[in-house]
Amino acid sequence: MIELKKKLNYKGNLANVVNLAAIKGIETMPYSIRILLENIIRNVDGLAVTQSHVDILSNWNSEAIGKDIPFKPSRVLMQDFTGVPAIVDIASIRSEVIRKGYEGIEINPSVPVDLVVDHSVQVDYYGSKDSYDKNVQKEYERNHERYKLLKWGQQAFDNFRVVPPGMGICHQVNLENLAQGVVHRDGWLFPDTLVGTDSHTPMVNGIGVLGWGVGGIEAEAAMLDQPIYMATPEVIGLELKGKLPAGTNATDMVLTVTKLLRDYGVVGKFVEVFGNGLDHLSVPDRATIANMSPEFGCTATYFPIDNQTINYMRKTNRSVETLGLVEYYAKENFLWRTGNEKINYTDIVTLDLSSLEPTVSGPKRPQDKILVKNLKERFNELINLEYEAADKLYQKTEQVELKSTLVNMDGKEFELNDGSVVIAAITSCTNTSNPYVMVGAGLIARKARERGLNVKPWVKTSLAPGSKVVTNYLTKSGLQSDLEALNFYTVGYGCTSCIGNSGPLPEAIANAVETNGLNVSAVLSSNRNFEARVHPQVKMNFLASPLLVIAYALVGTVNIDLTTEPLGVDTDGIPVFMKDIWPTTEEIQEIIAAALSQKDFEETYNVIFDGEEEWKKMEVPSGQNYVWNKDSTYIKEAPFFEGISSEPNKLSGIKNARVLLMLGDSVTTDHISPAGRFSASSPAGKYLIDSGVAIESFNSYGSRRGNHEAMMRGTFANVRIKNKLAKREGGFTTYFPDNTELTIFDAAQKYLKDDVPLLVLAGKEYGSGSSRDWAAKGTMLLGVKAVLAESYERIHRSNLVGMGVLPLEYKNGENADSLGLSGSEKFEFSGITSGLKPGKIIRITAEDEQGNLKRFEVVCRLDSEIEVAYYKNEGILHYVLRNYLKALSAKKQD
Q1: Residue 176 carries which DSSP code?
Q2: What is 519-546 written as a DSSP string?
């Protein structure tokens, strides 16, 4: 038998390693498969991870694709929006363990967990020197209770660290500091791998670390030493040729890649990048592509370790020991890229980088690429489509023309139009981690300032760096002052507008938009532009490089061709065009070389876990068991575990089910569980008012994720969700059989009272977007037993299973329309209670209001035997908790 483990002697020290060289054909396998294979071999225990799993990946080919394999990451990364409910869940499991008579301290993360608080800062203040301080103060006022929970968790749980607010965005912090390339633990050397509770976790793939986004539910299971089960992926090779032409940058590249791969179809697959174009891409450029993996739909976008990796690790102040170890291990164990490999990918997609042009994407999806030179023409098409769609959906008869209105604000009068840019945000880890585009934006600001140009008065500007390293090099180069001269002041170190924390528009702008029904725009250097994500009053959102964010802020509209029309006139009345202020590659590189040093990373990350004064002085209770405050509107014990039985109940069928929502294509997790602001008239708003919370203290849905009462009321409450069972946009539905229109929450409560199971009907790509566990948790708490869709985005389907909601899929070519479903029927499911297995055909009978029956078959999207076990246990955490209780019982008896 071939020995798959060996000792590696590194500088006189022996360590155990998996011997990938012993695997036949290893040199032609994709690097990402090699890492998965190493992970399986090292973790074989004969129970959860077996020799059969080793055999599947050792013979990775078309026959292996789709077979179930386990993955045990070496660490877990979280952000606070998803991290708070995870800590609530783990603390709730502890509480139930204690109620069962065991020691709560037995429940701890089994692998290291880093939680970075980056999703809570909101742009309430902007355009002044004190914007940052005021926003931080407001952040602590709103989130004090949540932060106390996290600080408590830091001392209560083993293997759990918190990066406090104001330190940076989790993916940039991960790229610049947390990722180590190779792990040395318990006498073993192995690749640094992770899962993260944010869909943009693959950003770290850019530094040769394999990781991807999972729902908080899966991440919690991984924290508790459960392997994550996945289907053996196809690996699509993305071949990059040539180099970026002058005038383009990594953002143009990634928006092009997003369109290319979304059109090709990589959902559920790995993408691995190769080709001579890699030789010209820095790690930040690579990470920009990897970051947007969820936008083109794949699980991960892996860049193998090579010289660029080592150079970046050196520049970002990784230790000499780390640099040496990563290079030695990667070269010794077939994980080092030379550029001469002949790898057998499932398929290859090619992009010639020299063909790129300045690009934006929008107005509602990241894959909707538009060349800057075509945006004006495309805008006019889009605005008409927007109005026509509204007319058709809600049966309006009056056709609306392009609109404009006069606005008076701060002593200035101006015209606000459809297409006016009301938000210009340099934000998001996608771009703020890349010095090239950040310095480029600063240089555009400098040159515009020199020509006497300024942003338009209706534009809400913001600069939210992903780490304090960015502020250091912008300040040293003088570019911070140039950005501030155009009102791009630092508003916080976090995701801000990218996650929906744009803050309120100025009252005069907000009133003008609402009163006149304007379709205004946002331009942001982000990865997400889904409906109502950036701001509920902004319907058209365009992704762009930080350089273009500045340019569009100067003109104040997207209804323009920046390649032919001037940005404005200078102090001498001479027109200024974009090409006049666009920096050259040499100018940008010169400033980076002078202003960015290894010392910047050393100074920033030496204090990364300390936090600012607000964090340091915050007092939290000690002790291992969290004391739940029943009056809290932020943190409540999770309702999923109390009184859990030792064995799961027998599966019950689904009969007389009603449709709660009937949805179209590309419904995102933002539609299902919005993260941003909400109104006093919404179910969540009414709940908070009834609980004594003032409207100005509502905060956001994202910040309330530790409270299931608020979150279940916010489920399907996005103001832009289009439910075909409602006559208006937003979180409404028709309650049957009364045919009355109610909020979705109120209808669900009535159904729940009458013990009526619920169903969601949807189209293609259901659950696209962020890895948001509350999109599944809220669905379950509303009483939804199954979702029937044409197709799913990977993470949300997994999360539905993780919460005991059955994902079903129409057979190819079928959907609600082709089957003649109106959504008013009663549904009965056959085939769930016995013989349930992956991919089983489930029979459905739908009875309409006249008693007519429609019978059809759908596919059960439980994709593995372990998912069947999770579903039978009502969810993955129920499964884990039952296993813990059995182990604790056996331990107690011994």
Answers
A1: I
A2: --EEEESSS---TTTS-TT--EEEE--H
CA of 545: how far to CAs of 60, 129, 149, 253, 424, in Å? 38, 24, 36, 10, 11
**Across 760-787, average pLDDT:** 94
Distance CA 235, CA 468 (A): 36
Residues 332 and 437 in one domain: no
For residue 809, the cross-strand partners are 789, 859
Q: What is the mean pLDDT of residues 738-757?
A: 97
In a domain, 108, yes or no: yes
Q: How many domains does the chain have?
A: 3
Do 88 and 129 belong to one domain? yes
Is residue 827 within 8 Å of 654, Cβ to Cβ? Answer: yes
Distance CA 491, CA 501 (A): 11
Which tens digits make up the pLDDT trace of 414-427?
999 999 999 999 99
3-state secondary structure of 465: coil
- Give, in order, the Cα–Cα distances in Å from 659 to each of 10, 246, 479, 748, 816: 61, 53, 55, 10, 12
Q: CB within 8 A of 753, min separation 6: which ones?
A: none
* Prediction pTM value: 0.87
Whether omega before 363 lies within 30 degrees of 0, making that bond cis, reads yes
Q: What is the pLDDT of residues 442-475, one digit of tens each?
A: 999 999 999 999 999 999 999 999 999 999 999 9
Q: What's the token pair of residue 761?
A: 């009907």
Scan for tokens 């028709």, then name that residue.
734
Q: Which two tokens stand for residue 440?
A: 């480029």
pLDDT at 393 over 70: no
- 389 inside domain: yes
Distance of CA 466 to the CA centre of its chain: 15
Neighbours of 50 (CB within 10 A): 14
Range of the domain at 279: 75-355
**783 phi and psi angles, rounded to 5 deg:** 95, 10
Distances from the Cα of 399 to the Cαs of 380, 388, 518, 539, 728, in angstroms? 15, 7, 14, 18, 17
Question: Which ranges of 412-505 does DSSP label H, i.e. alpha helix?
Answer: 429-432, 435-450, 468-476, 479-485
The domain that contains 243 carries what CATH number?
A: 3.30.499.10
End-of-domain residue from the set 355, 371, 399? 355
Question: d(Cα 223, Cα 194) in Å, to the nearest integer?
Answer: 11
Rounded Cα distance between 84 and 75, Å, is 17
Q: What's the CATH code of the domain at 811?
A: 3.20.19.10
Residue with tokens 């059809």: 856
Q: Are 76 and 195 in contact (CB under 8 A)?
A: yes
Residue 8 has pLDDT above 90, yes or no: no
- Among 286, 236, 284, CA closest to 260: 236
In three-state secondary structure terms, 856 is strand
Q: Is 533 left (phi over 0), alpha (psi -120 to 50) or beta?
A: alpha
Token pair of 60 as six digits: 């990775």
Contact 612, 481 (CB under 8 A): no
